[in-house]
Design brief:
It contains 3 helices and 5 strands. The protein is an alpha+beta fold and 115 residues long. Helix 1 packs parallel to helix 3. The longest helix is centred in the C-terminal third of the chain and has 16 residues.
Length: 115
């Protein structure tokens, strides 16, 4: 399976569904669903400079609380804790400069951890 920089995230996720079937543990989040964005902002706290930026939730892992977000030009997978009393360094995240890099991370994580 080849993932390119020219593919949309929807095309990439569809490739994953075709390759791994119903067992693939990530699903797309509707653009209008702000639940995960609101949770992320709550966990980041009012003083985090990300809170004032446009943040979009894109996909969620069904096996844990990882959510893929688009923040400006960056793609980040945050592990949400559903807590506002986080220790420094939380919520943890992985950052990617492209959707291809994020998708490759998601694919590799799925293959290594769930297959």
């Amino acid at each position: 399976m080849i993932i390119t920089d020219y593919m949309t995230i929807e095309e990439i996720m569809n490739l994953f569904y075709e390759e791994y079937g119903e067992e693939f543990n990530w699903h797309m989040i509707p653009f209008t669903n702000k639940t995960h964005v609101n949770e992320l902002k709550k966990e980041l706290g009012k003083n985090d400079n990300l809170v004032d930026q446009n943040i979009y939730s894109v996909a969620k892992c069904d096996s844990n609380d990882d959510v893929l977000f688009l923040v400006g030009d960056l793609w980040r997978i945050y592990h949400l804790t559903y807590s506002t009393n986080n220790m420094p360094g939380y919520p943890k995240y992985e950052e990617f400069s492209s959707r291809r890099e994020a998708a490759e991370y998601i694919r590799d994580q799925y293959v290594n951890d769930y297959l």
